[in-house]
Amino acid sequence: QQQLFLSLATSLSPLPTPPHSRPPPEFHQGATMAFIKVQKTRAYFKRFQVKFKRRREGKTDYRARNRLINQDKNKYNTPKYRLVVRFTNKDIIAQIVSASIAGDMILASAYANELPRYGLEVGLTNYAAAYCTGLLLARRVLKKLEMDEEYQGNLEANGEDYSVEPAESRRPFRALLDVGLIRTTTGNRVFGALKGALDGGLDIPHSEKRFAGFSKDSKQLDADVHRNYIYGGHVATYMKTLIEDEPEKYQSHFSEYIKKGLEADHLEEMYKKVHAAIRADPTFKKSDKQPPKQHKRYNLKKLTYEERKAKLIERLNALNSAAGNDDDDDEDDE
Hints:
Elements: H1 2-12, E1 27-29, E2 35-37, H2 42-46, H3 53-56, H4 62-69, E3 81-87, E4 92-100, E5 103-111, H5 127-144, E6 176-178, H6 189-200, E7 214-215, E8 220-221, H7 223-230, H8 233-245, H9 247-253, H10 255-259, H11 267-280, H12 305-333
Helix pairs in contact: 5-6, 5-11, 8-9
């Protein structure tokens, strides 16, 4: 009897829940996957702090910016200037910038789209154009500070490394190179702008290791190779190669050069004239283009009730007339 009672009690008692049938709160189960531990819990999202906006957009390297704008406390409110160089698809932007609580302040700026005024109308984003833009910015900021006569810079662009020497009265204008997110590879165009600013008379801490023509093996700068880049020699070599091997490609890739009548052998002379013109007058000139007196507006005008009603009647009449014409055509066919 006792055994019978135990068997009945066992059959009537609820079955124990298997230990793996219900996951704990911090686990979840996929459709066909094993149990995975939840890494980002509620506490993670409560304590989460978003990054700065320009970091989220991938525009600013705040680790580099922090080191570029930090100023010694014993220099009080002395601005710390940066030479900011940025490249777009069709332009080069070079600026002298200082940081403040209100935001970055621009002391002077130069753009590659100003170079046609100095005689350079094609190839506005290559290494040679970057050099011209850096040279233009350097001469412009020194003229603005009335230091252009005292610091002439390197008058002959021979490709050799150059650093300005302090004069007896005023020290040279000092700025730090800000490359942003550009990969600082050897021969990058940003160092062409740096070389132009150095030859223009600015004091910028630098090394010759990233200039075009620096050899990693010999650990020396080949000034002839660097000079070749400054005067567009690499472009001239490519032009000659395309003329011989792929004439059709040359016609399409260098169509603007052909329109201006520029040949490979004439590039160096053109760049020399551009450098001289920049030194002669680096001041900024406002565009002569007048803004339109009345801008075009493309947004639709909101109609009143009467106008909407009249428009509906017009559409209905047009539909009725079209239906009547179709009926007349059917009768004529019969």
